[in-house]
Design goal:
There is one protein chain. The chain is of the alpha/beta class. It has ten helices and 18 strands. Helix 1 packs parallel to helix 8. It is globular and about 70 Å long. The two termini are 40 Å apart. The model has no long low-confidence stretch (mean pLDDT 95).
């Protein structure tokens, strides 16, 4: 298994302070031991792999899901819990320019379908994931961002067929959104959730439908054998007719070899406070349950949760070590205090990090692995994997079954980053530029 980050990234320390782990017990999944053959082997038990497993198992397909750690251990069990439109880092205008208006609109429909899919799964599978928030709200962190937000309201209304709401600066406080912002735009489509409760519920449902889930079962090799494939897992073998690779930001360079250089993980960092009192909420003037983010390139994302804890996260970082994690946590806490100064005294006992996955195309990929018939991959959700990862899993299941079509943007082949395993260096000057542009 060849990876571009040090072993620390894939170990227990980055997620050791994850609040979500305190909220939901997970089943003890077995280690892979002996299973002669299945129709489909799925590598990775996050939103994508579990969604694919659920939809395949419900169609009568025999499925084995193999995770190097535990189902939901990666980004799916440690993200900010934003189920919203997204998946691409390209603007709506850029998407239309590159792919054409109709193809871009097909992708935007997929974004909405992804959110709807999660809502339907939660209801159908009876998963209580502490959902809240009427869509998502973006805040102008500078005065000059206000006009671009106003223009974006028109774009959102046209593309997503919703009625966005622009909130003037003077009206933020009366909406429970008091802070150092210059205005805000609410897109009413989407909701927030507890990602661990969702991913654990998805795993239980997949198992109930007949999928076999295995933990601490890293796949080290995929070999073509007799029209299908043989997977090597902890020195044991599993035969499978088809394979789905759903490892996203925790992917390997050689699983399969085609992935080498085509994905780029980057860190995202989160803190969660203790429960805030009503007096503390009133003092800061923040009482809204809206999931929120700002207009920075390296954005902050934040929300008050139903239990009155406050979640605050930020993008950025291509280093991974104990010291790098500590620096990121300090920076995150400093930004939290700067944006919500009335809460400087409020403890944030939970702090963790995880990997977001980027592609050079700046769009997700859902499709076949070239030169490996029957092998498919879904990854690169650019920090919006709750909805898009779940949707990608369903689409991968349809590809395996031969029953569906993947939107053209998602089916576009992934380009390689330059510099191979050293490609993190490519992003350092770009992120430095983003930092300066956000001032």
């Amino acid at each position: 298994m060849k990876r571009i980050y040090p072993d620390h990234t894939y170990g227990p320390l980055p997620r050791s302070g994850c609040w979500w782990d305190e909220t939901c017990e997970a089943p003890e999944w077995p280690i892979f031991d002996a299973l002669p053959a299945v129709d489909v082997a799925i590598i990775g038990a996050g939103f994508t792999g579990l969604s694919a497993a659920l939809h395949l198992a419900e169609s009568g397909v025999s499925v084995a899901v193999l995770d190097a750690q535990q189902p939901g251990w990666g980004a799916s069990g440690r993200n900010g819990g934003f189920c919203c439109i997204g998946g691409s880092k390209l603007s709506e205008d850029k998407l239309a320019k590159i792919y054409g208006a109709d193809t871009a609109q097909e992708f935007h429909q997929a974004e909405m379908d992804a959110v709807t899919l999660v809502a339907r799964l939660l209801k159908r599978l009876n998963i209580d994931a502490d959902t809240h928030s009427d869509g998502e709200t973006q805040f102008a962190h500078r005065a000059r961002d206000v006009e671009s937000l106003r223009r974006r309201a028109e774009t959102v209304a046209r593309i997503y067929n919703v009625e966005p709401r622009f909130i003037e600066q003077q009206d933020l406080a009366s909406n429970g959104m008091d802070g150092s912002f210059f205005g805000a735009l609410t897109n009413p489509f989407g909701f927030a959730l507890n990602p661990r409760k969702y991913v654990v519920g998805l795993a239980r449902a997949a198992a109930k439908a007949g999928a076999k889930l295995f933990a601490n079962s890293p796949v080290s090799k995929i070999s073509p054998v007799g029209g299908g494939y043989q997977l090597t897992i902890n020195g044991r073998m599993l035969r499978s007719e088809k394979v789905v690779v759903a490892t996203n930001g925790y992917s390997c360079e050689d699983l399969p070899d085609w992935l080498r250089g085509r994905y780029l993980p980057t860190q995202s960092n989160v803190i969660v406070t203790r429960p805030l009192t009503e007096e503390e909420l009133k003092t800061q003037g923040w009482t809204t349950l809206q999931m929120s983010y700002d207009t920075r390139n390296l954005l902050h994302y934040f929300r008050l949760m139903p239990d009155r804890r406050f979640l605050f996260g930020m993008r950025g970082g291509f280093q991974s070590s104990a010291s790098a994690d500590a620096r990121a946590a300090r920076r995150n806490r400093a930004d939290f205090e700067a944006m919500f100064p009335a809460w400087k005294h409020v403890e944030s006992p939970y702090s963790w990090s995880g990997m977001v996955c980027l592609s050079r195309n700046l769009t997700p990929y859902v499709g076949p692995v070239p030169e490996m018939p029957g092998v498919y991959a879904g990854l690169a959700y650019h920090g919006n994997g709750v909805a898009m990862g779940s949707y990608a899993g369903k689409k991968l299941a349809e590809l395996v079954l031969g029953t569906g079509k993947v939107p053209a943007v998602l089916a576009t082949p992934m380009k390689k980053f330059p510099l191979g395993t050293a490609r993190r260096a490519v992003m350092l000057p770009l992120y430095a530029g983003y930092t300066l542009a956000d001032l």
